[in-house]
Amino acid sequence: MKIAIIGATGKGLTVAAYLQKIYPDVTILDVPMEPLEQIQSRGVTIYSSTTFLTNFVVKPIEACASDYDFVFLFAHPFYNKNILPILKSTLQQRCFIVSFQENLSDWELIQSFQNFPVLSAVCKFETYVKQHHQVVVTSPHTSLNQVAFDLYDSHPSYFYYAEEVKSVLDTIGCTQIVRTAFDIKWTQAIFSGAIDRLASALNCLYGDILHHPIALQSSIHLVDEIVRIAKKYNITLAKTSELDYAALIIDSDTKKTEMMPIIEKLLLPYQKIPSNQDAYLIDELLEVATLVDQPTPYLETLAHCLHEKNEEDFHRNIACFQPLVTGTLWRQE
């Protein structure tokens, strides 16, 4: 069995390392060359319940083979403009394409590969990349035995597609086939996108939000507004084994204190990551926010920093959020 992992991300490398224990023919492909060069020379070290080193065949995306049985897509959606045309022109047989990309939906991918079985998936564990060749799995290893992956098939009449992919992913951890709307992908994308834009607005790393009290409180209020908007428009937010996203709403002063360690936990795996996502996620959310009855001061301040003050430094921009944080801590429904 031939497996391609596209995207040398933390989760992509972790999945590749565990799969290679069972399936020896695993290849890492990506668009940026720097991580591939380090992986080629040093292998990949996974730090989990145990630490182990794995060596991979690595190739640029242009060297994609035509006879893979499974293609697992982890690369940032930004690179789809480079990746998808190559896959469309190269893949000859009807291999399984499984998207782990953190985007709002995989509709673009499904439309591009109508003759291929395309499935959506989400990793339920968290990782972060210490260096290009070192990955830390921050979730407890026991959580993999509970639910390691959510898997959704947009071809419900061909139920065996999902079962076949599940049989591969189950070698890593428990895979749950989701039969309902794939709300987990939407939820994770909108929350991570909002926090990313906060980092961009402040010209800082995720870790700066984590360690700066005003920035951290701002992220809590930002999350609160996302949940309120979702509630207003009956948008279903995910409930995982660890977290009910719909409960991240400030309905009392004590609730804000309770949310602090939750937001810290969400940010911790990404604390060394610079902001690099496109602004479209938060911009789309702002369009919805203008229709909501109540004001959305954090989203408005965020948009102001992004579009009007994006050249200023962290300390100057954080001052924009100071009055909001020191004002009313919660709003009535």
From TrEMBL:
Concerning Gene3D superfamilies, the annotation shows: N-(1-d-carboxylethyl)-l-norvaline Dehydrogenase, domain 2, NAD(P)-binding Rossmann-like Domain
Q: Which residues form the Ketopantoate reductase C-terminal domain?
A: 184-309
Tell me where on the tree of life, at the top rank, the source sits: Bacteria
Which residues belong to any copy of the Ketopantoate reductase N-terminal domain? 3-140
Q: Give the matching InterPro entries.
A: 6PGD_dom2, KPA_reductase, KPR-Related, KPR_N, NAD(P)-bd_dom_sf
Question: What name is this protein filed under?
Answer: 2-dehydropantoate 2-reductase N-terminal domain-containing protein
